[in-house]
Amino acid sequence: AKEEGKGRYVVYDKSMHTAFNERMNIEKHLRSAMNNNEFELYYQPQVDIQSGFISGFEALIRWNSSELGFVSPLSFIKIAEDSRLIVYIGEWVLREACHVMKGIHDRVGSRYKISVNISVIQMLQDDFTDVVLDSLAVSGLMPNCLELEITESIFMESFDSIVSKLEFLKSRGIRIALDDFGTGYSSLSYLQQLPISTLKMDKTFIDSLADKAYSQSFVQTIVQLGHNMGLEVVAEGVEDVSQLAFLKEAGCDKIQGYLISRPVPVSQLEPFLKPEKRY
Ligand code: C2E
Ligand code: CA
Ligand code: CA
Ligand code: CA
Q1: Is the minimum distance from the CB of 90 to ligand 1 under 6 angstroms?
Q2: ipTM of the complex
């Protein structure tokens, strides 16, 4: 309590000052990043566990800032959300991902899906569903080849309004995945109300498969829960063959992770577009 009273008058220490400046600096450069064409999408394959074939890709943003160099999305997405810049950045991501995937379909056939991360700030926009439908219309991509990845943070926002937007998009054939599942605030009753098609089990469960006894039963339980609800279950962050073997045995539908590939730029996608088994 003594410490508390004292701390109240400390407005900032040096490290806070530095962190604040860094945020301001990132935000400032984020504002010009779009016009300077500093964003790029990388693509990470998802593999169907039973068949061994690639079923789709997740689009992941990369920012090569002329001033700051490469900045991880883990450092700038939150800042982009707080400053609302994510609305513009996210729209670009959606349009670019649909466009690139349509180009792939035209060349090699339409067997791949594209998954796009969507911030809750984007979903709260009045024109969110229009932007999604327009991205499909402009690119010519089929709606059932687009999957939107949302996180459990939507439970803290205008849940009803977001659910009705997602229901509308689902009725148009677009798929919805619940990302990072198991780490946030989902309760089972909320889960039932969400019009999702896919559960993405968080990487932390996969990481601990080898050394935490309860992780194996967590993973089995999540797979069963998903399947009982009629959902597809995807494991993210799969890095080794023992994790793959366990997930296959547990009946998980798809995997994504460094075991198959790191995310790659469009220029390096070609080898992944061949219809070959990946393990
Ligand atoms: P996420 O959606 O959970 O994406 C998975 C992250 O795990 C990616 O990090 C990916 O590169 C990384 N990853 C994939 N497989 C493995 C693996 O086997 N091992 C390890 N250690 N990591 C793996 P990344 O690309 O740095 O993205 C971080 C987060 O930033 C994403 O987490 C997502 O929340 C956010 N993000 C990325 N792109 C976008 C975007 O376009 N829009 C929005 N709103 N968020 C994005
Ligand atoms: Ca994701
Ligand atoms: Ca994820
Ligand atoms: Ca994650």
Answers
A1: yes
A2: 0.98
Task: Classify residue 236 by its DSSP letter.
Answer: -
10 Å CB burial of residue 169 (0-12, 13-18, 19+) is: buried
180 touches ligand 1 (CB under 6 Å): yes
Q: Is 176 helix (H, G, I), strand (E, B) or coil?
A: strand
Helices (H), the chain: 2-7, 14-33, 73-82, 86-108, 120-123, 128-139, 159-171, 188-193, 203-207, 213-228, 241-250
Each residue's pLDDT tens digit, 144-163: 999 999 998 887 778 899 99
Contact 202, 236 (CB under 8 A): yes
| Residues around the ion ligand 4 (C-beta < 5 A) | 180
**CA 275 to each of CA 19, 270, 271: distance values in angstroms, whole numbers, following the listed order:** 47, 11, 9
pTM: 0.94
**What is the number of residues in the chain?**
279
- Taking CA atoms, 264 is separated from 45, 63, 177, 252, in Å, by 9, 14, 21, 24
pLDDT tens digits for range 197-223: 999 999 999 999 998 888 999 999 999
Output the residue whose Cα is nearest ligand 1's atom 17: 237
